[in-house]
Specification:
six-stranded mixed β-sheet, 265 residues, globular, four-stranded antiparallel β-sheet, alpha/beta, Rossmann fold
């Protein structure tokens, strides 16, 4: 039996009379990415809150790295969350802390790791996102794209098995958004990170799904994805509380479903 990074089994959730999710089932294989799309209010961000344990489902089961979490108490959930990294829409950096302090915050505050080791890890993840020289800067000195990439670096410091992205390119111009998309692709292809990407930016979603990162020496290039690599990223489309589509980018693009065609147009 495959142990998935994340698995939902007939998960339902309602707020009073409003049904947000109805019998939603899907799974995320290790090292793969699931891109969650759908109209506003379709439950995309709710999926992330359920994974983090910030909401409890009314029914169904949720497993993260093989552990059932939908009925876990907070203390046990904290241990599960340690294996998750979260990248928020606005980056959510602490404005009064330097890039170094932001990226290393969890290690500084929640572990006994010696400061030199924390600094080494901070340097490593900042180097990965191409911002190694920004370690001493304040968030106010960064562009929007740089702030998002710092947020990705911060999510990586504790070496999570799964990354959760909540609208990571919203508000960015297309060129800047592309730099964030490239980081998401690098993490999937070069680090083997499993990810849930919630977005309403279809341009970015299809770019991530149809490109791969290739490393040759110190150079990393982004090329059209091979069939094998393309199969590692799937779309999950939500509609009226349920799953309207789950599958690869090519299948989504060529679907004859009127709703899907209208949504993509």
């Amino acid at each position: 039996m495959t142990e998935f990074a994340i698995a939902f089994e007939k998960v339902s959730l309602a707020f009073d009379d409003k049904v947000v999710l109805r019998d939603v089932s899907f799974s995320l294989e290790r090292g793969h990415t699931k891109i969650v799309i759908g109209a506003s209010g379709s439950g995309k961000s709710t999926i992330l809150r359920l994974i983090l344990g910030l909401l409890k489902p009314d029914g169904g089961q949720i497993r993260i790295n093989g552990e059932r979490v939908d009925q876990m108490h907070e203390e046990a959930l904290m241990k599960v969350r340690a294996g998750l990294g979260m990248v928020f829409q606005e980056g959510a950096l602490f404005d009064s802390l330097t890039v170094r302090e932001n990226v290393g915050y969890q290690l500084f505050e929640e572990t006994t790791m010696p400061i030199p080791e924390v600094d080494a890890r901070v340097g490593e993840v900042l180097g990965f996102v191409g911002l190694g020289e920004f370690v001493g800067r304040m968030p106010s000195e960064l562009s929007g794209g740089q702030r998002r990439r710092v947020a990705i670096a911060r999510a990586l410091t504790s070496k999570p098995k799964v990354l959760l992205y909540d609208e990571p390119t919203t508000g960015l111009d297309p060129i800047t958004a592309l730099t964030v998309d490239d980081e998401i692709i690098k993490l999937r292809d070069l680090e083997g990170v499993s990810a849930i990407l919630v977005t309403h930016q279809l341009r970015d979603a299809f770019y991530v799904a149809t490109h791969e990162a290739v490393k040759q020496g110190d150079q990393i290039t982004f090329v059209p994805a091979s069939p094998e690599k393309a199969a590692m990223t799937e779309f999950l489309m939500l509609k009226d509380g349920g799953v309207a589509f789950e599958g690869a980018a090519d299948a989504l693009r060529h679907s004859d479903d009127p709703y899907l065609k209208a949504f993509l147009s």
